[in-house]
Amino acid sequence: MNSSNINTTISYEQNHFFKILEAISNSTVYKKYTPELGKQHKLEHIQKVLLFSQIIAQNENIDENQTKILLVSAAFHDCGRIKDRDNGVHGLESAEIAGEYFRKNVKNPYEIANNEIGMIQSTIEYHVVEEHIPGQINEIILKEICNKYRVSVGEYEKVKQISAILKDADALDRTRFVSGSDLNPNFLRTSTAKKIEMIEFAKKINNEFARQVINTNYPSFQNISADKVKLLHCIRQKLKKENKIDLNRERNIPINTIISIFSEDNVYKIEDFER
Predict the structure, then answer these.
(1) Of 33, 104, 217, 247, which alpha carbon lies 20 to 30 A from 62's?
(2) Backbone phi, then psi, for 105, in 5-degree steps?
């Protein structure tokens, strides 16, 4: 891989990714109904943050076990969110829910051991922390969080690294919004996330997700526009104004379709953006 390219290929040999993707997609973690929580922070967001976390990790040369901890943190990072705007409260709630789940389920499909729970909780709680210096981890706060969850000194640097990746992966999914203006590359932390190719990759993935949501829920609209993110937003706004839609009743994209989008043969390649 040269400096202008990003490796976006995910194969089934990277079994942690697909195993965690399927486990969280088939769980009940993100199926609870709350009227204040829209579609923007539900399962589809989690699935994309998982993808972006994997892509960043493999381009930043993160080892397999550290990547597993990152991906599980990504899978649970919004599980405590009950409304779209909560001023960061869901970071702590999600960390507590994840910790309780893994302590109760010693044998779990994510293959998380007891000594890894604190690292996951620290990463999840930190993902909502506002950083005073754009693009830099707030180490004072992160160390306080790690101490709370009894993360050892030797594991701190790992948590710092995966916390940066999760924050970047979460930020990259802001390309799911119509304006995309919420994503400021200057606030990203990893060299991979900052690359224009990675940002364009995130936009492509979100356009594909929007296309699949439209095909699954609003097939009569599917050929109107090439910009599916904008089209989906317009559909939802129109039907909401006409009281003809309950976003919480939109059907999720089937997991086999998600896997197809993310798999080695179908995931977008960087070369597609350079033509």
Answers:
(1) 104
(2) -115, 80
Rg (CA), the chain: 18
Average pLDDT over residues 20-34: 86
% of the chain at pLDDT higher than 90: 60
Please count the CA atoms within 13 angstroms of the CA of 84 that sit on its side-chain side: 7
C-alpha 85/C-alpha 22 separation (Å) is: 27
Q: Per the domain annotation, does 9 fall within a domain? A: no
- Provide the token pair at 48: 């994309």
Q: Cα 238 to chain center, whole Å?
A: 27
Q: Which of 20-29, 64-73, 77-86, 187-196 has the lowest mean pLDDT?
A: 77-86
Report residue 54 as tokens: 């994997």
Nearest-10 crossing angle of helices 64-76, 89-104: 120
State the chain's mean pLDDT as an integer: 87
Is residue 8 domain-resident? no
Residue 97 lies in a domain: yes
